[in-house]
Amino acid sequence: MFFLKSAFCRVFQTSFRLALPLLPYREPKIISSCSALGDVFRKENIKSLLIVTDHGIVSNSLITPLEKVLNDHGVAFAVYDKTQPNPTVDNVEEALKLYHKNHCDALIAIGGGSSMDCAKALGARVAYPKKKVGQMKGILRVLRKLPTLIAIPTTAGTGSEVTLAAIITNSKQQHKYALMSFPLIPHYAVLDATLTYSLPPHLTATTGMDALTHAVEAYIGRSTTKETRRLALETVKLIFENLQTVYNDGKNHSARENMLHAAYKAGVAFSKSYVGYIHAVAHSLGGQYGTPHGLANAVLMPYVLNAYGKNAHKKLHQLGISAGVSAEADTHQDGAEKFIHAIKALNAAMDIPEQITGIQKKDIVTMAKHAEKEANPLYPVPKLMTQAELENFYYQIADWSAEG
Q1: Residue 298: CA atoms inside 13 Å, Cβ hemisphere, count?
Q2: How far is CA 32 from the centre of its chain?
């Protein structure tokens, strides 16, 4: 039975790869700072907009520069600041009510990937007022144009400012799912390193490792292109050169800027070449327990890469060379092992644990089922795995030391 399913997965993935040049991918127009948004407001004839963010962004005054430029250009605005770290259907519906109440005609998402995902799903609800969020999950379910969407990342990790995906949690079912459609790609992205200065070290670390995961999974998959391979290699080089620097010195402007561009490049790469089992398992943890996505990716990455074995050695070796931790003369296996070891070392240097607390044995089968359903057949992974094989990862990363 798995043979038949494997064959179906590979045929499905090959079809997507062949169709890639024909699909309407686009990239947002990059804006250097919030102060340059006035031209966008005039061009798009924006009169009133909704800012989608979270309480932390507001309390740290990160929306102050944005509010100033909005006031300076006479654009009315309301603020939705209740976005959860794993944005929920309820968040989207609350924001939708505020959007209509204030007669908005555009959206700005400022914050991490959660705010951007919430704003994307909100835009989809505006475009499809009679459809619930869950009815638009999956591939190419959103075809109508969204209101003008401006993404302002304050973290360097998710790449959501350039992707076609929005990850939403159904808190009642404790399940995450993705909306993946081209209209969800933001129209503009503000890449301003100064907005990432206040990101605390632990979030700098986990969001940076999130970007690394995007690049690695995009590169080792079977649906790469010349462009996505180049972007993934560039991302890995930038992250290994800059992530630990910004972890230790959050106001290093050059390194912060490099990390923003790394996240952006990784976002372009995985939008076209997709991700893999690291993300699928991480999403299930986020849906079940609210585990921060970047943390889950960082912890899972070495385990999943090891499990791919020889199917990924050559490409992991190439990534290791780009990261500066493997040598051309290494065998593919040695180069891959050096790269995986370097990921572990980078995690350790930034106090990212090797395991995650709170995982319950009774939930593992359900989470693995969600992960397998998400990944197969869409993700063009180096090696296909069954639900039973995915269950192993939860046992490997579970920290049960506190249990009696």
Answers
A1: 30
A2: 21
